[in-house]
């Protein structure tokens, strides 16, 4: 077998028959059973996601073999190598995400309950902002739409047979606008390379990409942008607790700004 990828939670290999093996690192072996169960629930909901064919163990590490996932290029690499395709890539991601949101589930974990737990546990968020975020979350509508909750360009695999979203361990049932808000935040914020020119190019590319993604998604869903904006505070607060580095700092700054704005709005309109 051939290794094609590595992350802090798993290594990825291509087996001789072309199937993909995801082998978890020792610190995250508990995620194997979670991903297997999530995959089963996604299949029952008809979601276009990787399907577990079998499980295996190598040197004490649990692994999952997917039978409908093929080796391909991440969207991140594709845009880096062919930047002229940035708008097409953003639109394709929006369409892929919209297709996921056509699916419903009564079995996946609750998005609202997970967000509550994440907001309460998020370090760095002030108590005032935490309570404001929880209050905003309580006022927003729930749902039973399948949500990925971790959309970014490394979680999209491009293949001639069709693109696919991967890494579904955070999948829930809930409101698709929360999922879109999380996607925009993750596409918008992140680390920077060294050098002024490289940083400038990356930030410009991020801005072009997330705006094109959002524009295409909103054109497909025809949803209320006011409600989407209201999801940003609770989603950013929850996301800040599970991100690191520059993205975490950016999220915390965004939470502080949105929290202050929301408290100011509530003070003017106390209803």
Structural features, described:
It is globular, with a radius of gyration of 19 Å. The termini are far apart. It has a five-stranded antiparallel beta sheet with strand order 1-2-3-5-4, with helices on one face. A three-stranded antiparallel beta sheet has the order 6-8-9. The chain has nine helices and ten strands. It has 271 residues and is α+β, with helices and mostly antiparallel strands. Helices cover 51% and strands 15% of the residues. Helix 3 crosses helix 7, helix 4 packs across helix 8 and helix 6 crosses helix 8. The longest helix is centred in the C-terminal third of the chain and has 26 residues. The protein folds into two domains: 65 residues, Phosphorylase Kinase, domain 1; 196 residues, Aminoglycoside phosphotransferase (APH), C-terminal lobe (Aminoglycoside 3'-phosphotransferase, Chain: A, domain 2, Alpha-Beta Complex), CATH 3.90.1200.
